Amino acid sequence: MMRILLVLMVFMSLSASTALAQIRGEIIEYKQGNAVMEGYLAYDDSIKGKRPGILVVHDWLGVGSYVRARAQQLASLGYIAFAPDIYGKNVRPVDSNEAARISSELKNDRLLIRLRVNAGLDILRNHPLADSDKLGAIGYCFGGMTVLELARSGANIAGVVSFHGNLDTPNDTSSIHTKVLALHGAEDPVVPPAQVAAFENEMRKAGVDWQLNVYSGAAHNFTNPSSPAYNRQVDRRSFEAMKAFFNEVFSL
């Protein structure tokens, strides 16, 4: 019962900042190759003209209530936010077992992940409200890994932020042209110290402008109130770190 109350309180706090804004949400259908995708767009309709855009990549559950709430939260800060669909339309895991299977299949095909996240980036870049010179991307868990693959693909954007995402990659990383911020839990069993060290070496070798924030006491999925690993303090700290990062890279 206490966890249910906590989940409700956190999602209310994610929505509270949108109360004074006029947040509009839209479902957008698009294609990556022959695959039909269905993403979610959010923006403040009271703001006129172009504004910086942020891609918000879903966790292993796909485009659901959590990533939509995060997109709305970013829209309330003055961004246009698009949650791309990396799985495909109607591919929505019903439980953690199905989510593990679907996300693992894609994790083993990083080139397909790159194609799909770049297809989502194209939707955001070409939206009439998006400032195409000020684009970034964030992702949670599976999405954190995905935005790092977006950076590794050579995407021309200002910066990417990974929240408790996998940091490894089987592919070449010499094409990174964007700034990188990784937000990692010190007690994350999914991303052990050896993987963190390899990521640091990868970033150094590639000459990337990168940052790594490690939060004590935080395990995997520390930003999601529906997870047993949710850490409210670290959720807030990491979100503030993301805000400061984009203020810098967008020169706001």
Can you characterise this structure?
- With 252 residues, this protein is an alpha/beta fold.
- Helices cover 39% and strands 24% of the residues.
- It contains 7 helices and 8 strands.
- The protein has helices at residues 2-16, 65-76, 96-107, 110-125, 142-152, 193-206, 232-249; strands at 23-32, 35-44, 51-57, 80-83, 130-140, 159-163, 179-185, 210-215.
- Strands 1-2-4-3-5-6-7-8 form an 8-stranded mixed sheet, sandwiched between helices.
- Helix 6 (193-206) links the parallel strand 7 (179-185) and strand 8 (210-215).
- Helix 4 crosses helix 5.
- The longest helix is centred in the last third of the chain and has 18 residues, at 232-249.
- The radius of gyration is 17 Å and the shape is globular.
- The chain starts with a helix and ends with a helix.
- The model is unreliable at 1-9 (pLDDT under 50).
